[in-house]
């Protein structure tokens, strides 16, 4: 991945001159391509969540599969859903990893306590799909479908369809988000595989977050490039200690409010940015008021926001 490219910024007002389309392929080209414990050469899209709009999902897929149990697998795929990783509020998750950043109100974190389980899952996924001779090249993939995608490094990763060729006005590419990392990419149909149910029980590891009590001094994040650069330099691809904060009954913002401290120095990220006069301190409810109405259908997929037809099983073990 091109480490010099900047992430695409989401959830900015429509009249922002800096707004970039959700389908812009730049979003996939960030430096954050894997978990910190993996070598750069073996990582895929980014690696270090919270959890309406109607989207098409796996419920409507009508795709033949390339094996003897096609009809059985088809029925299974119709109900496939991968739940977000649950977290406990007010608990400190040390050595977490910031894997991808759109802006300080929308970035992704991976929890260290699930790293070993995830690496084992990745190993099993790659062993399974490296032996499959063909991908599902049917054109019936729908926005919201879960799948396995072969990345540029030759490895396979859990993904979700953001847009079809018809929706992103391309001849032969789908936009997919890598649900364990947070970034997205344009991929060919030949690189998309139906996901086996056994690879869907482990929650998505990219946790979408907003920086606790923080908004730009003025305007939008896109209008404050110095703030964006400072935040990225401070935490992107770095280890942080994170505390997730609870929300009031009036706060409908679906991303988790995260208080970050650098694991190396224990410096509080919010306080550092306040000292530099790069942000203003606001209530988390104010963040919700600023951004909630800007959420689009693609954001529900990218930030793992459940929608009406989708059900998540929350009986999920948290970190020990």
UniProtKB/TrEMBL annotation:
Q: Which domain of life is it from?
A: Eukaryota
Coiled coil regions, renumbered to chain: none
Q: Name one Pfam family in it.
A: TUDOR
Show the segment(s) annotated as Disordered: 1-71
- Compositional bias (Polar residues) at which positions? 14-39
User: Where does this protein have compositionally biased stretches of type Low complexity?
Assistant: 40-62
Spell out the InterPro entries in the cross-references.
SNase_OB-fold_sf (IPR035437), Tudor (IPR002999), Tudor_domain_containing (IPR050621)
Segments forming domain Tudor: 140-202
Mind telling me which PANTHER family this protein's record contains? FI02030P-RELATED, TUDOR DOMAIN CONTAINING PROTEIN
This one is known as Tudor domain-containing protein
Q: Which organism is it from?
A: Rotaria socialis
